[in-house]
Design goal:
Layout lengths: L5 H19 L9 H6 L5 H4 L6 H26 L5 H13 L2 H7 L3 H6 L3 H25 L5 H15 L2 H5 L3 H9 L9 H13 L4
Helix pairs in contact: 1-4, 4-5, 4-6, 4-8, 5-12, 8-9, 9-12
Length: 209
């Protein structure tokens, strides 16, 4: 690959995102620095600036990649299954989404700050990935529940996608948080991300004609 070639740019970008993803497994967003990410790659911190100007840009690109992976899973379902009942649609959507825990965790972060501290071209690339997820969910509804009107589907999308942002905080409660809830008189009942999501989807799909 020649220096500055599209192939090299893609390879370097993936290396940076992979390093960020690995760090994010054990550290929080605030703890991770550009220096940390650089140390986990073959690039220097200065080298990273050739691809990303801020930490927020890296995380936004990582979130976009997670959306792309979810879209690929949903399209895989549509390629394999010609028909699904409403209950099966809820289960398939819940499974494909919750198979990407990093996506759910990233969505629980402050997306506004990530977008505000990213260049327009990076923000546009992210919105393309996000838009593809909206369109793919809509395609699933059109394919498997054709009796849903366009208005029904729009209502579904604008209820389901905001809901997604709260899945991780509600299903990944730390021991410290559980203790605080008990002391505050708030009983904690564990629900898996799949259970919570599937229940919500079934409710949203009930009676949608």
């Amino acid at each position: 690959m020649s220096r500055g070639s599209p192939q090299l740019t893609e390879a370097r970008t993936e290396e940076i995102l992979n390093a960020c993803a690995a760090l994010y497994e054990t550290k929080g967003f605030k703890e991770i620095t550009l220096k940390d990410i650089g140390a986990a790659t073959t690039l220097t911190r200065t080298g990273i600036y050739l691809y990303f100007q801020t930490k927020e840009e890296i995380f936004l690109a990582l979130l976009g990649r997670e959306y792309d992976a979810w879209v690929a899973d949903m399209r895989g379902v549509m390629d394999q299954k010609e028909r699904l009942s409403r209950e099966e649609v809820a289960s398939a959507l819940a499974r494909t989404l919750t198979d990407h825990p990093r996506l759910l965790r990233l969505l629980s972060m402050n997306l506004y700050e990530m977008e505000a501290n990213s260049r327009p071209e990076r923000l546009t690339a992210f919105k393309v990935s996000f838009g593809a997820s909206l369109e793919t969910v809509d395609q699933m509804l059109r394919k498997y529940i054709p009796e849903m009107t366009e208005e029904d589907r729009q209502r579904f999308l604008y209820a389901f996608f905001p809901f997604i942002y709260g899945i991780y905080p509600y299903t990944s409660v730390t021991e410290k948080q559980q203790v605080a809830m008990r002391e505050a008189g708030l009983p904690y009942v564990y629900q898996s991300a799949y259970e919570l999501t599937c229940r919500c989807l079934k409710k949203l799909l009930e009676g949608k004609a």
